[in-house]
Amino acid sequence: MNWEGIVIHHSASGDVSANTIDQWHKEKGWKGVGYHFVIRANGDIEPARNWNAAGAHARGRNQNYIGICLTGNFTKHPPTAEQLAALIHLIKGVKSRWQANKIEKHHESCPGPMFPWDFFINAVS
Q1: Which residues are CB-neighbours of 39 under 8 A, at least 6 positions away?
Q2: Cβ distance 13 to 72 under 8 Å?
Q3: Residue 10's beta-bridge partner residues?
Q4: Cα 53 from Cα 19, distance rounded (Å)
Q5: What is the extent of the structural domain holding 116?
Q6: The total number of structural domains that make up the chain
Q7: What ranges make up the beta strands (E) of the chain?
Q8: Which tens digit of pLDDT belongs to each residue from 2-28?
Q9: 121 and 88 Cβ atoms separated by less than 8 Å
Q10: pTM value?
Q11: How far apart are CA 99 and CA 111, in angstroms?
Q12: For residues 82 and 40, what is the distance between their CA atoms, to the nearest angstrom?
């Protein structure tokens, strides 16, 4: 794949596994989990979708953007310190391996207003 960038999401739920999100997406009639990685509240990074396959997480960007979803609802609380550390680590690896240098929010309200976007962008720049 020719990855141009990364799209950051939140699950808008509790702390759930990539397998649970896979089940939710299948219940919607989709082929399975749309994200390439899921980061749990404890900082565990779970592979979700084959990173050699296009995602199904951000309309218009699925072919060229890796999808990363942090569990939690960041309209109600911020991500954990462990999640942010894992996300920063993962982003640096993705950027190094694939030169996927663009980092974008899913949309204006995702990953949520309590996600520390400016801190995060400075940490991965």
Answers
A1: 45, 46, 68, 69, 70, 71, 83, 86, 87, 90
A2: yes
A3: 70
A4: 17
A5: 5-124
A6: 1
A7: 5-10, 37-39, 45-47, 65-70, 102-105
A8: 899 999 999 999 999 999 999 999 999
A9: no
A10: 0.95
A11: 23
A12: 9
